[in-house]
Amino acid sequence: MKIKTVFSCQNCGFQSPKWLGKCPDCNSWNSFAEEDFSSSDNKAKERVSLYTDGPVLLKDVQIKEENRLKTHIKELDRVLGGGIVPGSVVLIGGDPGVGKSTISLQVSSQLTKQNVTVLYVSGEESVAQTKLRAERLGNIDSEKLFIVNQTDLSLICEYIKKIKPQVVIIDSIQVVFNPQISSSPGSVSQVRECAGLLTQLAKSSGISLFIIGHVTKEGALAGPRVLEHIVDTVLYFEGDRFSIYRMLRAVKNRFGSTNEIGVFEMTAGGLAEVANPSEIFLSERPKDVSGSVVVSVLEGTRPLLVEIQALVARSSFGYASRRAQGFDFNRLSLLIAVLEKRMGLALEAEDIFINVAGGIKIEDPSADLAVASAIASAFGDKMVLPETVVVGEVGLAGEIRSVAQVSLRISEAQRLGFKRCILPKNNFKNLRLENSNIELVPVSTLKEALDILLGR
After folding, report:
1. Scanning 257, 266, 274, 387, which has its CA 20 to 30 A from the CA of 343?
2. Which residue, 273, 299, 318, sits at the end of a domain?
3. Any alpha helices (H) in 117-187, and if so which ranges?
4. What pTM did the predictor assign?
């Protein structure tokens, strides 16, 4: 077998016969590493040997209803689309210490209580270390949970064939290596080949596979981009490792929606579900303070009430600074320009800071009106109307545009005791609410909304 040397980009997997300073595919700098490249004949034979069935006619395929495997962790089941699909491959990513291994052990515990056999492959921790972590989580003592410390892919496949588990957890894919590939563990070639072979084994045998992946300093999954294309579902853990709250978000899901999120709280006993995240996010909201506005955003089918905080202060350096935490910076710049042009606010010499309390990241455009209102409130040092929720998208002309699922947002605000809701006029025209005792205030322009909120 002929072996040659190639240079592979560690971000996207692009290969070159010589070293390059900049990758022509993903435009990343200094990402090329030298690797040994061998013929793929043996790899192809190994892939083919995993399959026992040949091609069949599509019309002859018998479809049977797949019963999803419930983890009984409601927040995780919601993000997965209702549970674990047999034969599916789930990739879990997140920053170090965010809770990837913790949630994996908790899933193992819940599944073994349902008489499901689980194989937990720990490549970074010894069996004793994994046992200590399991004891901290509590109640993980089952004859159906197997743990092994192994990084050799060939031995892992043998364990899977011998034990025949229903669920396999790989922690993590960056330390697993294929002995037939000469490059080091964690390289593009190793990650791609190991993930591919494990996926094919899972598909051919009906095993549900969870793969834990490291992330780069930019927050993306380490390894080639093809890793995300191979798997069925990609889950990201979001949240500061020093914060107690974690968001689990699906960025790819072949068996469900990618709009759902799960909210967890990190405790001494592991990750605890947060059944009412809106109440948690608003629990520490300050009273009688300018620059604080509550907005109802939609994450999948779940409405969340979060607090938008704004701080506007005179710049001391002649160049105004803008910062946003949890909100898109480009969207913030657009809203500041609308406030300056359409509302006449002199913000060019003001430092503006926006924070979404609770550590959540907002992508819903319905938060535009809340952000603009918080900036105007902080700039004029005026409190917004109390017990009021704000919903609406702001256009470049200063108009308030309609948003989706406004009835769900209003119902959540009413449940938490809010008395008033500022909403787009177009949404108000078609709104049908039963047994509602919340005051609905329709607005069509940003000026109209600010006049009501700030009592101008």
Report:
1. 387
2. 273
3. 127-137, 153-163
4. 0.76
